[in-house]
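so i finally got all the pieces together for this one. its two components total, 369 residues if u count the protein bits. some of the lines might not be protein, just check the labels. i wanna see the whole assembly predicted at once instead of chain by chain like last time, that was a mess tbh
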Amino acid sequence: MAEENVTFTLPDLGEGLVEATVLEWQVAVGDRVERNAPLVEVETTKSAVVIPSPKEGRIVELHAAEDEVVAVGAPLVTFAVAADAPQAGIVGRVPTEEARPARRVRLRPPAD
Amino acid sequence: MTANLAGDVTMRYVDLRPEEPGEAVPVLLLHGFGTTFDMNWRATGWTQALADAGRRVLGPDLRGHGATDKPTDSGSYLPERFVADLVSMLDELGADRVDAVGYSMGARLAWELALRHPARVRSLVLGGFGPRDAFAGTDLSDPGSGDTPFDHVFRTVAALPGNDPAALAACARGQAARPFSADPPPVGAPVLLAAGARDTLAAGAEDLASHCGGTYVEIPGRDHANAVSSRAFKRSVVEFLGERAPARGPGTAPPVG
């Protein structure tokens, strides 16, 4: 099957953050990963997060070593993906989270 | 009839059920000071890791945090108030027992839950937590103004969007009003402690583990802020909780082959 390489850049992690430090890769070159599988653990000045894989494919290159600082928008990882896989709107974005089953409950102090 | 309605809070929580349930007892996740369920557990990959293990996950935004109400009096933040919230939530959900997993302040609250309601907690996991006074040397009339480890934590979280520094200061005072004591330890629930090797706020975690007959896992190279997302930490907890689960719980298909 024909493949093409697609490079995923470090997404905007919000709150005006401009860079993040790679803590630990959860994949290695040659691995096949599913979409949304854990890709890389990074840390900003605010928090540590795990970035999920934006696509299904084979890892071709990791662009940053562990402990390296990566700027938002800089290359993070290159995938080989099936050439006929849909690409629209995927490159450089973290997948939108599905709707969260959140509920609110009113709590009262115990009656005793 | 209810009394003291002025003292109530509206609490946001999540109940995440896995596609393929493997275990009837849910995992209760309790976030740390100044964060939220999503920041502490979802963004760090915990909800995914537990879903992959077939676990149902429950977790609140604790009072004073996230989308839950944020009172500004310290009396609202005594540990027993948090525990009452948790018990109400578990009752509402019909969850008789949980595996309680907390990080930092959430660990202290998981301990309190196990201590006060031993029948509700099957296993106890304390992350980023030690027996020392987390507020030592901090001027709690103005947290964040000094240079203690807690002052640093306070300044970081007080600046996060959605946080109310007045509510967080009240929360710190409420927690400090009931200093942690390792005695008596909770009974009946096996305990796992896990902390980053460089986590100064969790100093003494290994001693606390031996004190309560538990297990200690050190996360190499990590500090208080970045141990929480560690893959090694998640793996240790999933394995520890799995050891307590029956091999074939209700709702689990018998092994094939």
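Strands of chain A lie at 3-9, 19-25, 32-33, 38-43, 48-52, 57-62, 69-71, 75-82, 102-107.
The domain at 3-82 of chain A is CATH 2.40.50.100 (OB fold (Dihydrolipoamide Acetyltransferase, E2P)).
anyway lmk what u think
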